[in-house]
Design brief:
The protein is mainly beta and about 110 residues long. About 10% of the residues lie in helices and about 50% in strands.
Length: about 110
């Protein structure tokens, strides 16, 4: 599971949180301006009960999700990698050093 972050993610993003082997995710389909935090003891107990043990990676966040109150969500996974670099969300043939295409971007026919 990848979460991309940037100023205008309709065009590109410059930071990714890549969760390897996610075992529990509870978050809105779309959100903005997440603030990551340490999970509460209740969230830790909930995740451990759901997956059978405390996972190696467990984070939580609060974010705007188009409703008056903030949405919150825990994410549990086996691994977390933080990847920096420009990830383009549109087809471009000539990439500069450090740029790459998002996995879902396909060449124009």
């Amino acid at each position: 599971m990848r979460l991309g972050a940037g100023h205008d993610i309709s065009y590109a993003h410059g930071l990714e949180l890549v969760f390897g082997n996610p075992v529990f995710v509870r978050c809105p389909a779309m959100f903005q301006d997440p603030v990551f935090r340490v999970p509460t003891p209740d969230e830790v107990r909930l995740i451990a009960r759901q997956v059978g043990e405390a996972p190696p990676v467990l984070i939580a966040f609060e974010a705007g999700a188009g409703v008056p109150s903030l949405a919150s969500g825990p994410i549990a996974a086996g691994q977390l990698d933080i990847v920096q670099g420009t990830v383009l969300r549109y087809w471009r043939e000539s990439l500069a050093v450090g740029e790459r295409l998002a996995p879902w971007v396909k060449p124009l026919a």
